[in-house]
Amino acid sequence: MKSNSNTDSKIQRRQFTKWVSLSSLSLALPISFTSCNFENSQKIDTTTELSDLKNVFDLEKLSSKVMGEDALLYLNGGADDLKTVKINSDAYQKIQIRARRLIDVRNISTNVDLFGQNLDNPIVLSPVGFQGFFHPDGEIATAKASVAKKHQMIVSSVSNSSVTEIANQSQAKLWFQLYPTPDRKITKLLLDRAEKAGCKVCVLTVDTPVVGNRERSGTTLMKLVQTGKLKMGNFEGILPDGMGFSDPGMTWDMIDWLKSNCDMKIVVKGIVTKEDAALARARGVDGIIVSNHGGRQLESNRATIDCLPEIVAEIKNGIPVLIDGGIRRGTDIFKALALGATAVCIGRPFCWGLGALGQQGVEMVLDILKAELIRDMQLAGTTSIEKISRNHVLKN
Ligand SMILES: Cc1cc2nc3c(=O)[nH]c(=O)nc-3n(C[C@H](O)[C@H](O)[C@H](O)COP(=O)(O)O)c2cc1C
Predict the structure, then answer these.
(1) Is residue 59 one of the residues assigned to a domain?
(2) In this structure, what CATH number is given to the domain that contains residue 385?
(3) pTM of the shown model
(4) Whose C-alpha lies nearest to ligand 1, atom 30?
(5) For the chain, what is the domain count?
(6) Which atom in ligand 1 lies closest to the alpha carbon of residue 295?
């Protein structure tokens, strides 16, 4: 294991670079974030733009003007031909809402109880790595926005700021997403740091035994890491030569190992079948996130919202089932909740806000989605999250 010296950090950066170039994670953001994001942001009249930002797609458009081309490729990219990226969103259009009438909808509650916490709303920020590519304030800006707007944030293992820095600078109550390395000693160090930073939930990502086939890669991530402009946050100083962030040898035994090596609740992210939902539950996990990594891993052509019903049926209210992938509107959130999700997670949308306007942009995205959800609940005649039921949607 490495000490935290400058030399060692350089070696780790080289190794990281090697791993990145072997995997296709290197599709990351080519243009130096300092030159691309901020030179360009000077060029746009943000005052005019702000008044036009009505929905998350407007933030997406703004991010495409502000961020560099390769940063956008990293953020918006996916596996193979991006069919799963697209179908995640498209599948929501095939579900119709059955609105109920003449219900007093003056008071709406969006609260949900999740893993021993009472959350203000069911819109959680998915773990997204390397947020320093999108904006120099990276995860710190996202965390501050999540605190200001009362949303739960999940910090990625591959965040640029460490979970400790993020917690200290934002005062956020974070959940920690885990990519285990093949060396459990390193994983244990990550878990200890996350717990020390106050994390009560560990989200184990299980859809990444290897990195997906993301063909549109750039070199900037490598350059930024090589030159030390982009830190590896949690892994800084502890990653041995040549080791990557995924463990292709990981099996269900990992759940037992996690349970005996930390006190956090264990949530598995990346479940897409009822068979694996049953196995996860049998292992005693505390929750499941139905996810295909936003279409960045296996090009499966199956939307997560299409996976949700069989998993909910298998779990039968036993443990919380969350979902992410393609959620862009309040109506998408409503549909997922109606089909049995306890809460939803969003990935790219908050990053569009971050890339476009930093913390303010993330806050705008969160405001927009929550306002849309509340309005949709009112229009559908549902006054609380638990009142959104299977009868409120039609799905084939
Ligand atoms: C740029 C980017 C980086 C991501 N990094 C991670 C990560 O570090 N860990 C992880 O479990 N999932 C990661 N994901 C997947 C997200 O957590 C989430 O599953 C996905 O973004 C949801 O789909 P959506 O972007 O359509 O909302 C990443 C997604 C994106 C777009």
Answers:
(1) yes
(2) 3.20.20.70
(3) 0.91
(4) 128
(5) 1
(6) 23
